[in-house]
Amino acid sequence: MKTVVLLNQDQMGHGDVDLSRRILKTFLQKAIALKGLDAILMVNSGVKLSGPGSEVLGELTMLEEQGVDMVPCGTCLNHYEVTPAVGKVGSMDEIISAMGKADKVITI
Description:
- There is one protein chain.
- Helix content is 37%, strand content 18%.
- The chain contains 4 helices and 4 strands; from the N terminus they run βαβαβααβ.
- It is globular, with a radius of gyration of 13 Å.
């Protein structure tokens, strides 16, 4: 089963920012256990996670080394002025295509 994760912000959930970032880091550490994890798509402020200095860059790099595609949105990268340190810059067409091919999309 193909699974993609959509990160649409630079934290997990709403509420305390420190807690939200800490639980996102833990989620990414555990995400390799997701059966068939094919890609992590990043949009809006989620693209900040792919940049140098990101608190989860190590986790994203580890997942990428395990074969998970990292796809930060090019328009969003430009908006936030982020140069990705992980992944391949993607267009909205590529992001939609990955979502359409997936059996399951998990939005964080």
